[in-house]
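I have been asked to look over a protein record a colleague put together. Alongside the sequence sits a line of tokens, each denoting a local backbone shape. Please read both lines and tell me whether the tokens look consistent with the sequence. I do not need a full report, just your reasoning and any doubts. I have pasted the whole thing underneath without changing anything.
>
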Amino acid sequence: MTATNRFFIDFHVIQTMPPSCVNRDDTGSPKTARYGGVQRARVSSQSWKHAMRLMFREYFDEADLGVRTKKIVDMVAATIMSLDEDKSDEEAKKLAEKVINAAKVSTKDAEAKALFFMSVRQAENLAKLILDNETPSTKEAQEALKRGFGVDIALFGRMVADDPALNTDAAAQVAHSISTHRVDNEFDYYTAVDDRAPEDNVGAGMIGTIEYNSSTLYRYATVAIHELTKQIDDSSIVAKVIQEFARAFITSMPTGKQNTFANRTLPDAVLVSIRIDQPINLVGAFEKPVKSTGEGGFSRASCAALVEHSTTVYKDFAGDPERAFVVGQELVDLGELVSLPELLELLYAETLHRLDTAAELSEA
């Protein structure tokens, strides 16, 4: 795909969270940020991407995914033993560490010094390389780690401090989610009763506090399809990746304090737009904190602000997207109204069509 055939898919989500603490800071408080001069609730991009990667495992084969771990020696060693049953566990670990070090990835005590993102296929590449050649070159070992990317590595990238040659540019960007309105954290004072305490004991077995908040969030992500095709050369697989990225971004949920608050919700509204110029984050709709409309709450006011702001941005700066879809009546002015299952099918078909058309033009 050439630069003239590049395109981006932007995802915009309005989602209301009940009392919850899905993403905590180092003190245990819900993460926050200041935007528009006031405090907002915040959920970090890393937190939501982790939830997405977990959901990917329900829709992709393990061989198509990556693993972020320090235990890459064990991962490659297990593959070596599956390919050569005569190798003992100790022999396999020595070979695995040797080929990993050859790729300029540092290890200590049979573990990587830092978390490393590696796909199942890349582990297999390294295992085959060291079994065929017990003195692989750095070039050979690094090439093995540059083939067979997991779809999550292709989407979210890989940063390797030991050697930038192993870095992989991310095709997707996920923004920190922030509330569309001002938020003040609250505290829940709780007590726990000792079930075996004497009947005349009126004290609590334990007391404590949990900090939480509730909010309507604006969530944004974008995928550069032309970047994704650099790592995945099959258009049908790319289309599948986009479909499952959409599903995971829209429906996944970080699990912080999930048992305490049972806070899992689905979005109030979704906008997905296809652009060929650049991705556009529409968070500016909420630089001025929205006010609750009473009957419609923050959700309806947030949707109205998103419609107004995006219309202005399209008119004054960027132009309309190539195509746009919305889930939720509140955003119907911005695109074709569809259900989530319909959206997923349309994204698959649209991605496949554009990639195949680009391929035909490049061959002409």
In short: Residues 340-363 form the longest helix (24 residues). The radius of gyration is 24 Å.
